[in-house]
Amino acid sequence: MMDDLFSAARQPVLLAPGALFLPGAARAMQARLMQQLHEIMAQAPLRRLETPGGRRFSVEMTNCGALGWQSDKAGYRYESRDPLSGAAWPRIPDNWLVLARTMAEQAGYPGFVPQTCLINCYAPGARMGLHQDRDETALESPIVSVSLGVAAQFLFGGLERTAPTRKLSLLSGDVVVWGGPSRLFYHGITPLKPGHHELTGDRRWNLTFRRVRAC
Ligand SMILES: O=C(O)CCC(=O)C(=O)O
Ligand SMILES: [Fe+2]
Question: Where along this sequence does the record place binding of substrate (predicted)?
Answer without folding.
Answer: 69, 76-78, 135, 161
